[in-house]
Structure to design on (225 residues):
């Protein structure tokens, strides 16, 4: 079993829909990261969370430490949000290494 | 803004060749990382370095080596390239942060094909 599980693996939605991507983990963590990867390769860090909720524009990330679960929400989705969204966690036993989820491929249709 | 630059976006090499992938960051970050990314597998750590001349094996170091002679530059070396090393290679850097978690900043990736 992977230590970081994302769902769904693939998601297709219409422009304007509210999007939720989930991340569950099984290890003790010191932080959780959400990242975005557009076609072509480059990865951009969206959020780093250790508790509660963060918001940036139309993106909202939440984390529930007790349930070992995080969600990434996109409000008023747009075709330019189409990308792979990746969850990663800092294992408490390591300051350097991240444990990576496999990613969620999101397609927003106009 | 942090800039992480990988020397090539696309690279085609032959089996048995020695391949060098170069990565340079401009923000004086202590930590640097090399990952490979394959469909369905997510990112897997090959090697990382937390200081000049220091290196640590990641999850899949076999067939690879690294070099960090200067703080800003981290090189990944495929000693004798094989077809199963065809992949997307991503370099990242981060501040050491004295134990605090720091976000990693990524380059655009190198898509390497071994024929």
């Amino acid at each position: 079993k992977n230590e970081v599980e994302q769902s769904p693996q693939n998601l297709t939605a219409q422009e304007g829909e509210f999007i939720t991507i989930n991340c569950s983990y099984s290890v003790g963590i010191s932080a959780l990261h959400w990242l975005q990867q557009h076609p072509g390769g480059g990865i951009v860090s969206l959020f780093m969370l250790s508790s509660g909720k963060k918001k940036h524009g139309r993106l909202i990330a939440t984390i529930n430490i007790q349930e070992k679960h995080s969600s990434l929400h996109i409000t008023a989705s747009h075709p330019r949000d189409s990308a792979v969204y990746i969850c990663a966690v800092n294992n408490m036993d390591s300051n350097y290494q991240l444990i990576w989820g496999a990613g969620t491929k999101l397609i927003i249709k106009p | 803004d942090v800039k992480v630059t990988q020397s090539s976006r696309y690279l085609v090499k032959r089996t048995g060749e020695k391949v060098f992938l170069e990565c340079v960051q401009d923000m004086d970050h202590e930590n640097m990382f090399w990952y490979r990314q394959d469909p369905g597998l997510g990112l897997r750590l090959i090697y990382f370095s937390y200081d000049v001349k220091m290196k640590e094996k990641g999850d899949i170091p076999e067939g690879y080596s690294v070099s960090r002679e200067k703080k800003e530059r981290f090189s990944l070396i495929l000693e004798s390239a094989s077809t199963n090393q065809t992949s997307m290679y991503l370099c990242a850097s981060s501040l050491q942060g004295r134990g605090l978690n720091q976000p990693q900043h990524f380059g655009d990736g190198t898509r390497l094909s071994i024929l």
